[in-house]
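Task: sequence design from structure.
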């Protein structure tokens, strides 16, 4: 009887920890199209409104890197607001190099990662859900 009670309590603890597991989402944004970026930021806002504890990272590469630069970004207010809520804005160093952009042009809220694809793979291996931003 003691063993059964221990088993049931253990099962309850394990199942409740699964129910309380925090969602983790990594978004891939490769487009420099502001319409697609607007959709992405709306989706991120919707997720955070419904589940404020969700961990989110957005990986910008390709022409999307222009959106995280001090002098060309169109959605700075949204980026700053999401950054304050813990959203990580990662930008691909390879994409910056291909465009001859120095990392000091990246906004302070941005985090430079060496390779966007490897960042996406690493997050998925760590159990993050992957979403490709597109309309």
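Answer:
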């Amino acid at each position: 009887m003691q063993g059964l009670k221990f088993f049931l309590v253990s099962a309850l603890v394990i199942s409740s920890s699964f129910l309380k597991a925090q969602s983790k989402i990594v978004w891939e944004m490769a487009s420099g199209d502001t319409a697609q970026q607007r959709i992405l930021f709306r989706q991120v806002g919707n997720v955070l409104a419904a589940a404020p504890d969700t961990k989110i990272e957005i990986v910008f590469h390709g022409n999307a890197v222009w959106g995280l630069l001090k002098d060309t970004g169109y959605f700075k207010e949204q980026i700053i607001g999401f950054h304050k809520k813990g959203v990580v804005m990662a930008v691909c160093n390879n994409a910056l190099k291909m465009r001859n952009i120095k990392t000091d042009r990246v906004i302070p809220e941005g985090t430079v990662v060496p390779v966007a694809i490897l960042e996406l793979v690493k997050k998925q291996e760590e159990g993050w859900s992957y979403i490709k931003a597109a309309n």
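The CA atoms of residues 9 and 29 lie 44 Å apart.
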